[in-house]
Design goal:
252 residues; globular
């Protein structure tokens, strides 16, 4: 990420503002046409549209600095064995912290994602919910939080300071106050893995694995594992086949 464009500090903030505003506007129009605001279909559409809109806004704003290229956002190859080792190390650190935190704090954080997506009502929504939770969310969030936000912060401060800020923001976006420390550490682990490997494919894989376990525990393990395995295979392929940086060596 050292060779990424030096994006302005306001870029991630503007991306969230523009992306969320546009996404919510589109969702409001859809809800108005459907004459419903709380149906699982609206929730699914809203989640996907807002996530994609934030990433799209960030990419468009990044174009004000230089022509956006996939490797600018961490979508680049890296040594598969080394990336796997770093990912396992990060996953182990997160697992140990989460177990210790749960034993000491015993956080009560009931999840309503499955109910909100309607994944507990029929097979179709179960599969759609798995795609949203295990595919869309990890890809969009890793591109934004690690590929963009962490990169912007890392260009201006030391690794662990940037990772801490990124992780805390990641935690606040995802959970109630009692669960923020666990999610913040998860975000910090993702930043570490990204910094060591230079690719967000390993962090997408870890994110998808975490969501697979959570989703499978609340719904159907067969569906969750099938979708999760597909994401892991795709990430491994990306690590092995994607260019390590712009083949032309041009950033402008």
């Amino acid at each position: 990420m050292d060779d990424a464009p030096r994006w302005p500090l306001w870029l991630p903030v503007a991306a969230i503002g523009c992306g969320v505003s546009f996404g919510l506007l589109v969702v409001a129009v859809i809800a108005g046409i459907a004459n419903s605001t709380k149906s699982p279909g609206i929730t699914v559409a809203g989640t996907v549209i807002v996530d994609v809109s934030v990433v799209a806004a960030a990419v468009l704003l990044a174009g004000s600095v230089t022509r956006p290229r996939p490797w600018h956002f961490g979508l680049r190859g890296a040594p598969l064995k080394f990336s796997a080792q770093i990912a396992v190390l990060g996953a182990l650190a997160y697992f140990l912290f989460s177990v210790l935190y749960a034993a000491i704090v015993r956080p009560d954080n009931p999840q309503r994602v499955v109910e909100d997506l309607g994944a507990d009502t029929n097979t179709f929504l179960l599969v759609v919910g798995a795609l949203v939770v295990i595919v869309v969310a990890p890809v969009c969030e890793e591109v934004f939080f690690r590929g963009i936000l962490f990169t912007v912060l890392r260009q201006r401060m030391p690794l662990w300071s940037a990772a801490l800020i990124d992780g805390v923001l990641f935690g606040f976006v995802h959970g109630s106050l009692v669960i923020v420390p666990i999610l913040a550490v998860l975000g910090i682990v993702f930043c570490y893995v990204y910094a060591r490997t230079g690719s967000i494919f390993p962090t997408i894989a870890l994110h998808a694995l975490n969501n697979t376990i959570a989703y499978g525990d609340q719904t159907d393990w067969g569906v969750a594992l099938a979708v999760g395995a597909a994401v892991l295979v795709a990430c491994a392929y990306g690590l092995a086949r994607a260019p390590r940086r712009d083949p032309a060596g041009v950033t402008g």
